[in-house]
Amino acid sequence: MPVAIITGASKGLGRALAEALAARGWDLVLDARGTGVLREAAAELTAYGTRVTPLPGDVTDPGHRSELVAAAWRLGGVDLLVHNASALGAEPLVRLEQLPLEGLRRALEVNLVAALGLVQEALPLLRAARQGTVIAVSSDAAAEAYETWGGYGASKAALDQLVAVLGVEEPGLRVWAVDPGDMATDLYAAAVPDDEGPRPDPVSVVPAFLRLLDERPASGRYGAPALLEGRR
């Protein structure tokens, strides 16, 4: 069975993607900071008959990243690495004049530095896989200038560039940055707590990610809304 590492997998998009892959027979290594919620999610996913290893921890910790890759190796390797863990930099979001520099550093560490660190750790196994793949969850804030989203958007824009270069340097892999579009997640609720407008459930976005895995287009940046409409 193919093996995936998914960070930020206890809820939201990470949890929804994990369930979709488990339903397809994938073995999973799941990361999140919340121990209880992660283990509950893993227990539910084992109902699909696949092997699921929950590893609570912080992706900014090099030791934790090593544990994730080692767990995947024990399951057979790494076919897919999904960097979904994200930090906002401030909760709720604030204008750049008020953004704590420590918050910005945290966003960069989680959204960008940890992503590269995990890729570096997993690269030997990804290269050895028949269809090694990296997915980095991006944001429209990486490409558009939204008030108060400057720190988070900057970290995701840097992630997009990192993914673009990795795709050039690793032509044997598929490397995609994916903008999932608007979703009802805890991250968004923490970012803009006063916004109570309806947003799509993360489950509705998962078919876009599955389409990428099925069709395996060239490495690059993709938007989930376009993929769901049948475009790239």
Characterise the protein shown here.
The protein has 8 helices and 7 strands. The model has no long low-confidence stretch (mean pLDDT 97). The longest helix is centred in the middle third of the chain and has 28 residues, at 101-128. With 232 residues, it is α/β, with parallel strands linked by helices. The radius of gyration is 16 Å and the shape is globular. It is 46% helix and 15% strand.
Core attributes:
single chain; 232 residues; alpha/beta; seven-stranded parallel sheet; 8 helices; globular
Number of helices: 8
**Strand order within the widest sheet?**
3-2-1-4-5-6-7
Total DSSP E strands: 7
As a whole number of angstroms, the C-alpha radius of gyration is 16 Å
Q: How far do the termini sit from each other?
A: 28 Å
Helical residue percent band = 40-55%
> Which geometry do the CA atoms define?
globular
Order of helices and strands: EHEHEHEHEHEHHEH
User: Main beta sheet, described?
Assistant: 7 strands, parallel
Uncertain residue ranges: none
Structural class: alpha/beta
Strand residues, percent: 5-15%
Estimate the mean pLDDT confidence: 97
